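Technical note accompanying the year-one report. For the benefit of new consortium partners, we illustrate the data format agreed upon in the data management plan: each record pairs a sequence with a structure-token string. No post-processing was applied to the example shown here.
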Amino acid sequence: MTAQRPIRKDSGLVHWMNQVPKEADKAAEGFDSEAVHDLRVALRRCRSMAEGFRAIDPYKDWKRMRRQATALFDSLGALRDCHVITEWTQKLGPADDPITRQLLNHLREQETVLQQQAKSAIDVFDRKQWQGWTRQLSQRARRLPLGSHVFQVLALEKLIAARRLEAPALKLGNDLVFHKLRIGLKKFRYVVENFLPQLHHEWKAGLKHIQDLLGEIHDLDVVRESVLSICASAAPAARQRWEEAVAAERLQRVNLYSEVMVGDGSLWRVWRSGLPQGKAARQASLKRLQAWSAFMDSDLQHNRRVSRFAIQIHDSLARLGLLKGAKNSRELLKAAAMVHEVGRFAGEKNHHKTTHQMVSNLDRIVGWTRQEVMTMASVARYHRGALPQAARLRDIPIAQRKVIMLLAGILRLANALDDERDGQIKRIKVTQRANYIEIQAQGLRMDSMLAVKIAAGRYLLEINCGLPVLVRAMPKPTTIQ
């Protein structure tokens, strides 16, 4: 990917959160169309950023901020629709048309009521709380640099989800499926717009063009519904003229959409080519998983040590020919080690079981199959606690079950090596003797409680690799006098 362009000063979470109260003051002066639109843009930016960060960071105030932004945003929705329908009515209908007059009169009456509702919503907007969130959330946001692999794979997830919505929209063509496609593409656009500045610079024209087309299709659907409901008593011929005019405008935009989004040169292909693919997508998902875990794991040093020990044991066993039939086992173990303690975020008690549930509930991980995600969850679950029971694994294919047991055995021993969480063991060395595996641990005292924990932690690995595992203190290097 090309080098990142400098981030503009008018972008970012702090900027848009600071814009909300400013735009609210402007909107409250008269609730004209442009001011209402600008306030909704600022709120939409804050909402989409909160959603993006919350996908990685479970901090509760992301949800609270988004909820408050959504409440004000939604309170302005009907007023914004009123402005949009007014503009389309003036564009589509002659001034002397009875439906035009009826629609405009109704909209003027509604606008006054909707302005009062919008004013009430702005008045109750908690600005002090909003300022507090601006300070707190901006600090957390700095932990995830813009343009990172984490946001690239997040954009890829949104792109794949949006792409699935196109076929039903073009096939069925009704307002509901096109609205879903519009929302799906909005979510993709917001991730690119907010978190991938280089790609947004390259794609912003196409993104805006498509969003405008889908937005106008939605607007025309709203106009059509308004004519049907508000002007139900109008002459059939007049209503038919309006329906035909709206349908013609809508069809024009659907065709324009198809021209740029369907076929070999579609924008879908352009966007997909700029995001991680194949093995790179899989690795990017691993980085996203690592970031998610880091926000929930209060002891990152322990997590890193356990991961390092687990991978070293795995690689040594692989070199010795003791790992067979475990496809992608290194990546699965690495991922399980990353997330093995995320359950502590919800409380210490039975956190390994909570970890299993949290990982199992993860939505689609790009590049990873559902079976791999469930394997990762099971390996992480058995890093401590009771040994895996056949009854709990009976629904898992035998080959996968063996992989889970073996990798869980490695992770359990790696976790035991740092059970004290103090980095007492600095490094390990794994070798195979005549009829057992020997692990030398630098810093281990054989008369310590840690040695007892390690002795218990090695059992699952022993029964799954078919050899005893001996863990002993690494001899101190001899000094030459």
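Partners are asked to follow this layout when depositing records. The first helix runs from residue 13 to 28.
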